[in-house]
Amino acid sequence: MEVINTLGRRKTAVARLYMKPGSGQIMVNNRDYKEYFCVPTLQYKVEQPLQVANLMGQYDIKANLDGGGVTGQAEALRMAIAKALTQINPELRPALKAQGFLRRDPRMVERKKPGQPKARKRFQFSKR
Prior knowledge:
Elements: E1 4-10, E2 13-21, E3 26-28, E4 31-32, H1 33-36, H2 40-52, E5 59-66, H3 70-88, H4 93-99
Parallel strand pairs: 3-5
Antiparallel strand pairs: 1-2, 2-5, 3-4
């Protein structure tokens, strides 16, 4: 079986993923994912699609992450893994879709407006 290449996005984070059958090694930016995502909740987010599909430890994953913060990168990687699993086995799609792993989260940071310090915050009003 050849290498499967997918893309996952969240906020400004982009995950480019290469998946092939193997021993279950997950490498993120040439580092182990447990070293890259040191918070256990982020490690759990990365593992979620593999746990739902009961395929933990069956595929080697190499991912290049770019942009955003660590949470956005973890969720982008989760989406990329879910997309790759559906390419391997289309029967997994309903289970992964029910968990919401295949839908890109459309929420983005609201832009800063002119004459204001942030997107919605206003400068302090002075009556006199």
